[in-house]
Amino acid sequence: MSMVKTKQTTKAGARKAAKAADDIPIAIRLALFRSQVEARYCEKRAYDLFLQNLVKGTSHLALGQEAVSAGVAMALEKDDYTYPTFRGHHHVLARGASMTSVLGELMGRECGCLSGKGGSMHLSSVEHGVMASCAILGASLPIAVGTAWSSQYRGTSQVTVAFFGDGTANIGAFHEALNMAAVWKLPVIFVCENNLYGEYTVTTKVTAVEHPAADRASAYGLERIIIDGNDADVVYRTMQAAVAKARAGEGPSMIECMTYRQSGHSRADPAHYRPPGELDEWKKKDPVVIYRKRLLDLGVKEATLKQIEDEAMQKVNLATEEAKASPVPPVELAFKDVWSNGGIQWRN
């Protein structure tokens, strides 16, 4: 009897788990998988192009953090606003910018989303709601508050999302932005991508609290939200709730996503400061691998996933060739779009 009961309990638990998984339509799940795969393939290609000396300057990859960009973007509408960090290639792609425009920008080509003038750390695509990536830690947080205030003032339902890293939570702009957003109940969502390191330093060694964003939320009257940033479903569900709260006029949210960058801080960083075995342990939590297995467990056919992966690689290959074929922008282009009138004249 006990064995029969145990089997029945196990089956009931499996049915309950399957029902919980069904709250996200399969079409959205496939889109989440596609977003993660495309970001992974595109950033790997960016690394290859760097080794070929086709990407100038430095850049910061987010390999291993793709679930955050996919889950957040999926919960937003087209006219919502996003402010990524300098590690923001995947966020720009997730909002709908083309691979050609991203790789072209990294290569300093005219086809880039900023005609080659922004580079890796300043990717933007206003038409896709990506207002500005910023190389200065925390600088985009008060700007995002301004965008949210604009939405509130104009009476729209637009939501602003501001991304930042765990190290940024120790900067004054972080606290100023949160305070103003909370006081004015602005429709802004602060998303901390906690990958455990601020450049080359373990965050907990230079931060008074374990969770630099969530543990300070109560100081501004916000809920303490810490989630698995390597699980796209968790990110998507959490963002849905935060977006609904913001659109309802109930103010900001702060979400701390626990994740891990599989590469160094930048291209020149071999990341020797990481403890032995840490990277291997986090690779077991690889968001792309986890999500692929979940889809298979939910009954998605291997052929369907393979097709998504093949199509993603085809897009990367095409974008690479298009970016390579695009010309280097002429010098005159450096003076375009400097001021609101499009020129370089001083505006009084």
How would you describe the overall organization of this protein?
- This protein has 348 residues and is an alpha/beta fold.
- It has one domain: Rossmann fold (3-Layer(aba) Sandwich).
- It has helices at residues 2-21, 26-51, 66-74, 89-94, 99-106, 140-154, 172-183, 232-247, 278-283, 287-297, 302-325, and strands at 81-83, 160-165, 188-194, 197-198, 201-202, 225-228, 253-258.
- α7 (172-183) links the parallel β2 (160-165) and β3 (188-194).
- α2 (26-51) packs across α3 and α2 (26-51) packs parallel to α11 (302-325).
- The termini are far apart.
- The model is unreliable at 1-7 and 14-18 (pLDDT under 50).
CATH architecture: 3-Layer(aba) Sandwich
Give the helix tally.
Answer: 11
**SS-based class:** alpha/beta
Mean pLDDT over the residues = 89
SS elements, strand count: 7
Instruction: Identify the CATH homologous superfamily.
Output: Thiamin diphosphate (ThDP)-binding fold, Pyr/PP domains
Distance between the termini: 86 Å
Q: Strands of the biggest beta sheet: in what spatial order?
A: 1-2-3-7-6
Question: What characteristics describe this protein?
Answer:
alpha/beta; Rossmann fold; disordered N terminus; 348 residues; 9% strand; 5-stranded parallel sheet; 11 helices; single chain
Q: Would you summarize the structure shown here?
A:
This protein is an alpha/beta fold and 348 residues long.
